[in-house]
Amino acid sequence: MKIIKRILPMLLILMLSITGCSQTSDEKEKDESKTKKVTDVLGREVEIPSESDSIVALGAGALRMVCYMQGTDKVVGVENLESEIAISRPYSYVYPDLAKLPVVGEGGSNGSTAYQEEIIKAEPDVIITAYDKDMAEDLTEKTGIPVVTVSYNGIFDKNMDKSFELIGEVIGKQDRAKELITYMDELEKDLDDRTKDIDDKDKPTVYTGAVSFRGEHGFEGTYGKYPPFEAINAKNVVDQTKKEGALLVDLEKVSTWDPDIIFLNPQNMKLVNKDYKKNPDFYNSLSAVKNKKVYSQPSYNWYTTNVEIAISDAYYAGSIIYPEQFKDVNVEEKADEIYQKFLGKKLYSDFEKEGLGFGSITIGE
Fold this sequence. Notes:
Blueprint (H helix, E strand, L loop, with lengths): L1 H32 L1 E5 L5 E5 L5 E4 L3 H7 L6 E5 L10 H5 L8 E3 L10 H7 L3 E4 L3 H11 L3 E3 L8 H14 L2 H22 L9 E5 L11 E4 L2 H5 L3 E2 L8 E4 L2 H7 L3 E4 L4 H10 L1 H6 L1 H4 L3 E3 L10 H15 L9 H13 L4 H6 L12
Parallel strand pairs: 3-4, 3-6, 4-5, 6-7, 8-10, 8-12, 12-13
Antiparallel strand pairs: 1-2, 9-11
Helix pairs in contact: 6-7, 13-14
């Protein structure tokens, strides 16, 4: 009996110990199931909630991609830049209620400054940013909230695919990410297939002017490796400079190139027309002007690329440069298809009402 009395407490302690270990293990597994790890576009491994009910998106293009991903219902704070609603930044036009949310950062040309205290007050589960590594890690450290970085450059950038997948993981929209990636792959292939076999000697030369970057520019504002032209394998005269991205060129250089076709941003025609009054001989000497080969190319850059505008621009430019290859495309309907896929709304008529539709341009009017 004495032996049994001694053994019983020991067995009880052992059973309690085993039970305690089992509970601890279960609780650990339960805690782990509440989070998951993702690798962002900078290669950072970030632990995020398995399900996120609230987010903020900071930096160039971050909120736009959340809108493309149909995740606006989870946004609890925006940058100050988003208070301005404009058709030329279509996601702001389609989702105007975003402008009413608490401001948690600066954004825009003033820089992507995060308002850390305001972010903490908004209590997002995850912060989605287009920040660099140091900025992202500093923001996590100061807010205690996981930061996932996204980014893209131009139209058909594989970083955008990765960014869509990341946002899908954060907000539970993995199927939407696949849908967008598949659609963009189809558009990229379609544009390339229509034009890739055309010999360079059979292509007209082209120029795009009045491009907006860090503000408005006149005819001299242009672009090397211009994404809509790149997508359709166009012969951009500016590529002779070997420069890539937005730049200013001398008008004399354009005169030397004398492009066959010119595309201009209708938003900046006031600057072009003002310069025309000062220098009509230059403009009237250009073959594209004499042959009435000047067309609109609505600007797509505002807080980085509005992808839906840029791809629509590519289809319109293709229809002008290669009419035979694009004869089956109604560019207005194609633009609406693209707007609807990205933002859920046909917008071409809205662009037209604002003077941002496709069509011929007469310089000087």
